[in-house]
Every structure is written in C-alpha cells, then in structure tokens.
Design a protein that fits this description.
Layout (H helix, E strand, L loop, with lengths): L1 H14 L6 E6 L3 E4 L6 E10 L11 E7 L2 E12 L2 E14 L2 E5 L3 H4 L2 H7 L16 H17 L3 E4 L3 E4 L3 E8 L6 E11 L2 E14 L2 H11 L1 H26 L1
Parallel strand pairs: 2-12, 7-8
Antiparallel strand pairs: 1-3, 3-10, 4-7, 4-11, 5-6, 9-10, 11-12
Helix pairs in contact: 5-6
Pfam family, one: Alph_Pro_TM
Keywords: Membrane, Transmembrane, Transmembrane helix
InterPro entries: CHP02186-rel_TM
Length: 253
C-alpha cells in the first residue's frame, strides 16, 4: 500500500495541468493465489482524484468502484416440486455473465446517476448486461435473470455496497471488497468512476490476476490439457476408493 501511495504522490504533480479531473487508482494486491487453505481475501482499492490546478471543488464528487470477474456463458436451471420430488422444470442460457461482480459507491447508485448512465457503465446489479441466449419470452428472461442474481448473491459472487467507498479530504478514496473462497480464477478488472452531478467525469481501470497455485494449479492444468486422461484417472480413483471402502467394511464385519 505504501508503494501505491508513493506512486500517487509522484504522479500527482504531472497531472495537475490537465483541464479535467484524473483518477490515480491502485490495489492492495495485483495477484491473488488460491491454495488448498484459501478461505477468501480482502482487497483494498484506493487512490486519489487529481483536479485541474490541484484545487478540489467545494462540492465533493462521488466515487463508484466495480470489481468484475471474467465473462462466461452459464446455463440456469429452474427447479420445481413435482409429485413430491424436486426436478429441473425449465432452463435458460446466458451467453455472457461475469463470474464475479461487486460494486461499492460513496452513495447509492440511484442517487449518483440516472438509469441510462447506470446502464451504460453497468453500475449496480440491476444494470448488468447478462446477454440472454434468446428465443425465450421477455417474462421468462426477466425471471431467470432475477434467479441468477439471487443465486450469485447467496454464493457471495455478486454484491453491492451503497456506502462502501470512503472519501477523505475530497481527493483520497478507499474501498474494501471481499473475495470469497469459491471465486473463479481469471483476470479481474477493477473500474473506478468519478461522478459529479449525474455525470461520469473520469474513469480508470486496473487488472487483478486470480489464479491457483501448488497442487490445485497442477490439477486445474491437467484437467484442461489432458481431459481424456484426467477423466480416466478420476474414474479409476473413484473405483479404487469404492473398493477400499468395501474392503474395510468387510474386515470390520
């Protein structure tokens, strides 16, 4: 964090000559390693707002920070209780949905921008562009979108904190975001938006790599590169464990 603050201090004099505000963001960790003992992490997203001539306005602006994971296709299934048994009754496919999405802001998004601006920048869970597969009725698509958002909220993969950004002296900001233990690997993007009077004045991005390490990395790479052999090994291991459990049970009997 000291290195990030030093970078802000060094860059600030070079940016004061611009005629528009500039964001200088940083992150407490550019890389997160997932090991067998990984139980989650806390990321600190912080930075500075550099105003023209170095003078901050008397009316403070607002900040919204979005941490977004890699986009992936997803199939959502809807279960219903039929004849006393829970069964998959319907499904809907989304062509692209972020594997992780968290937004924090200094005030509620609805108080910062109008619906159109929020939709353009995908600020807030209700403004995510999930790209449904098509072919379904609008009512069905809305139902499955709501179901996907609710599911990922409960898994900790989607979140929204309307008071999650702290602004100090009108120029320094910070926000803390939780990374759950089941977070998918990939390249994540942290987007910071400076907002004033309903308009986005400046934006900046930083990338974060979340990857597996150690034995977990070896297994993940093997599963991708050698799918057939990995599947055979998984079946063989299951058969061996089943045989070992049966043998142990017979000995005890």
């Amino acid at each position: 964090m000291r290195r990030g603050l030093l970078a802000v201090a060094v860059l600030a004099p070079l940016l004061v000559a611009t005629d528009k505000p500039v964001l200088v963001p940083d992150i407490s960790a550019r890389q997160v390693q997932i090991r067998y003992s990984f139980t989650g992490a806390q990321l600190l997203l912080f930075g500075a707002i550099v105003y023209p001539a170095g003078r901050a306005p008397s009316r403070p602006a607002d900040i919204a920070v979005v941490l977004r994971g890699p986009v992936e296709p997803i199939l959502v299934r809807e279960k219903q209780k039929i004849a006393g048994i829970w069964m998959n009754a319907d499904s809907n496919r989304f062509r692209s949905a972020p594997a992780f999405y968290a937004v924090a802001s200094s005030r509620p998004i609805a108080d910062l921008v109008d619906e159109r601006t929020a939709a353009i920048y995908e600020l807030g869970l209700d403004n995510l562009q999930l790209s449904p597969g098509g072919g379904a009725l609008p009512e069905k698509e809305r139902r499955f979108e709501a179901g996907l958002l609710d599911l990922r909220r409960r898994e900790g993969l989607y979140s929204q904190n309307p008071r999650g950004v702290e602004i100090s002296e009108r120029v320094l900001y910070r926000a803390t975001m939780a990374i759950p233990s089941q977070v998918p690997v990939g390249t994540y993007t942290a987007e910071t938006f400076l907002i004033d009077r309903g308009k986005v004045l400046a934006a900046a991005t930083r990338d974060i790599e979340i990857d597996k390490s150690g034995f977990e990395r070896f297994v993940a790479i093997a599963a991708r590169r050698y799918e057939f052999l990995y599947g055979l090994n998984a079946v063989a291991l299951s058969l061996f464990l089943g045989w070992a459990a049966a043998a142990l049970f017979r000995r005890r009997v």
